[in-house]
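Practice problem: predict the structure.
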Amino acid sequence: MNILIVKLSAIGDVVHTLPSLAALRNHYPAAHITWVIEEAAADLIEGHPHLDRVLVSRRKAWIREIRGGRNISAVFREISSFVSTLRDRHYDLVIDFHGLFKSALVVLLSGGTRKLGYDSMQELSGLFLNEKIHEDMEKHAVDRYLDLLRHLGTDTKEPAFLIPVEEENRLRVDHLLSAAGIDGTTPFIAVNPVAYWKTKLWGDERFALLCDALIEELDTRIILTGGPGDPSLPHIEGLMKHPCINLAGKTTLRDLACLYQKARLVITTDSGPMHIAAAMGTPTVALFGPTNPDRTGPYGAGHRVIRKPLPCSPCLRKECDTMQCMKDISVEEVLEVVKEVWKDRIQE
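Answer:
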């Protein structure tokens, strides 16, 4: 049996799909399973033990190059090669976990027999399916995706997150920690202050104050994580009274998973790294404003969400004149929650 998973992005959404992959492999142990994914999140699943093949779509790069008029013939050759590889086997089952036009196009091009997804007509994605289920938007994304597997009759009672952290990731993280003076006995807190949406940000000044307070009150080391070139991390570092460790751009996604696994806890905005931390089983303190933690919060036990139930929240807006829902979260409030989680971790 040949199965195709279509979940292209983003990092958090890919993490949310991992339990469905595990359930799929458990239900079809002999199947050949392919996953089509975009470049940004590919590191999370390449070499995954539950997968036989990963096909990476460079969709965003193709669009940029075509719009820029650069290497157009080469781009179309690459697209043609991607489609040929996608169609080099017949898929008995194609599952569209994404439900957008870009994923529906992959479903159409795959030529699969049984094309399963949600009954949503978002971006007309439902037109390309021949088997649909209702999408319950009141559920967490992990459970919504697992509904597709329940439809197939799989066992989904214990969702399993597996990010394939390998020895090279452990060695690289150990080297980064050692270079910062952290050994296996040194407790540290990982802090992810960045987010894709401006409205999800808490503020560099608040994070700097929080990190200094944690160093003073918990005698811990602070590690800042983020992408390369993100201005928030050096800004926060410059605002702090005490030294911290800035690992912005120094980790792959799997390195980040390994780092978070070693942390005593993770403090984060609503972002892809938040979901990686939760998937690794590390207690996560998440700051929420415009989004709904019931749908996209850190999944599993032991995590804490801090948010203010304003009448306008969750609004799911990427732009806001006040950002009051995030501004109303105080440093003192986050500090107290982190201290509670820290104490629970020590007592484990």
